[in-house]
Amino acid sequence: MKFIDEYRDPAAARRFAQAIRRTITRPWTIMEVCGGQTHAIVRFGVDELLPEEVTLVHGPGCPVCVTPVELIEKALEIAALPGVVFCSFGDMLRVPGIERDLLSVKAQGGDVRIVYSPLDALRIARETPERQVVFFAVGFETTAPANAMAVVQASRQGAANFSLLVAHVLVPPAMEAILSAPANQVRGFLAAGHVCAVMGYTEYEPIARKYKVPIVVTGFEPLDILQGVYMTVRQLEEGRAEVENQYTRAVTRAGNREAQKRIGEVFEVVPRKWRGVGEIPASGLGLRPEYAAFDAERRFGVAQRVVEESTVCISGSILRGNRKPHQCPAFGTACTPEHPLGATMVSTEGACAAYYRYRRVRPQDAPPPGLETKR
Amino acid sequence: MTPEDTPEFYCPVPIDRYPNVMLAHGGGGRLTHQLIEDLFLPLFSNAPLAARHDGAVLELGARKLAFTTDSYVVRPLFFPGGDIGTLAVNGTVNDLAMCGAQPLYLSAGFILEEGFPMADLQRVARSMGRAAGEAGVQLVTGDTKVVDRGKGDGVYINTAGIGIIRAGGVIAPASIRPGDAVLLSGDVGRHGIAIMAVREGLEFESAIDSDCASLAGLVLALIEAGVDIHCLRDLTRGGLASALVEIAEAARLHIGIHEQAIPVRQDVRGACEILGFDPLYVANEGRFVAFVPLHDADRALALMRAHGLGAGASCIGAVTETPAGQVTMRSSIGATRIVDMLSGEQLPRIC
pTM score, two decimals? Predict the structure, then answer.
């Protein structure tokens, strides 16, 4: 396919792999931030082409995985209410809360619908004025502009039956949290290309300087990732720690200013809990006071709910890049995509689900299940 | 935030066995598999069922018959390239063909919703008549029920079919041998994307038509030419990947395929990229895989390509001993990965 096949060319992939091999002199751990990159790495087997000195670890960039259980519980509570149409992107439907997921709420009679855009949810609100329509606004900076746009339009149209359950998270604070953890192994980052398409990459420059890590804005095709790794390794070997842009066909340094303006109009930076990681200051987006009328947490009286995350499997370590999925004793045995113990097994972008799907260790090779289910 | 290096394992409470039926139980993936294995098979146990084929193979005197049934609940009822009527006939015809049978007779049960337009019902019935004619089968018995408005989705159709087995050997996963070639009858993913496009109002530059078709003629051509067919499987829900995984698990053999040998039309690939779908898991209604010994592979391919429906046929891989029960794929950039079955339906990804 034009514009895609060019980035999946086996000969070019081998050339990049050789270039990395020629450049590297010692082991480096590099984190790809975005779940979409993790997915591509395992789907195409990108890491198989890399020399053994490169360890790729999978970062926190999967919104499905990092949305805290508290917000999932709020979503489940709202979705189960009579008179509510609960709209969500598809892969949030399988994320487990404490006892159930949105698919279960749907099976028990809740009106849960998959939409492709928040504007679809707004359209449903217009067409069914007698129902309360709630959109589950998850995602990083990538999905924020469209969600902001939906709120602006809802406000203009006076759509009193439309609201957002906001779970937006931001990439740079998560990277800082990883870098400042005592046991951090990560020496370089592949930054998430689509986040940077919106935000640009100026906010990564102080991080690269402060923590002395190279950060390469990277795309999602196999060759993008190989080139991103090559650029990161070259910086590491040369002792540089700069922000570079591999994904020039989509990303500029300043980003999409119009989209940033929309985000700033509707959202403000708030502290946010991350599933498996805990609260990170100034790491999320919430609705500004002037748009509080569209806040589903307020509208349905769930804002004060506190759900303790009793439970983390090792998804917290995985999201911070300290461990790999197969190092979990539950991986592939007690924990599978049908019965996920943690969020990283739920989304197809989650590191555990990607490992399970594409490179599962057969049960006889897996570590023995030594894990009791606790609540 | 707690500092890392606390190796304490806690588990979120798993969603254990679902207490209610989930849509994914009908999705053709792991949950469907689980439902059949855990709930139905133990209660209905018998020899023909134990073969777990698309249809049951029954010996009646000297004759071997194939018998199968399927229900059709597709939404939308009408889509580019077909409708629920063509599906209801071709789907059951194809299940029979996959047993190496010549399909002969079909039954049709209609569950109609009160208020369903008579003109639409007529259109569906006309499609069924036409599809039956093309497949060389007769609709010889049927049933009609009407449910209250709001209790159905317009029309649901069940068809059952019987056919006479024409193949000499046993066509089943157990007949597959290491060294067999895996032949795919054409491009994959069209039906699922055609349905998705209408259902979700996605617009592409040109409409993507479903591949819905009767495969009986093509399969009979292979049988009549004396191709030693070891196994056949039509690729419906769950797509090529789920079909291959099911076969590899049943045969306890390894199936290795090459991503670049699998034909996927440009527009289908584009739609899959947009939706975050893997075309290997997207539904088809007019495609199948055939496992044949290597020495028959070229001849079988030539026969398939000579037949209109198999014009895009290709050899996508081969069977080996190990790793038993697995499907692996050589990716387009030359690395290898496991191909697994999905839990349920593919869900569109966030970004």
Answer: 0.79
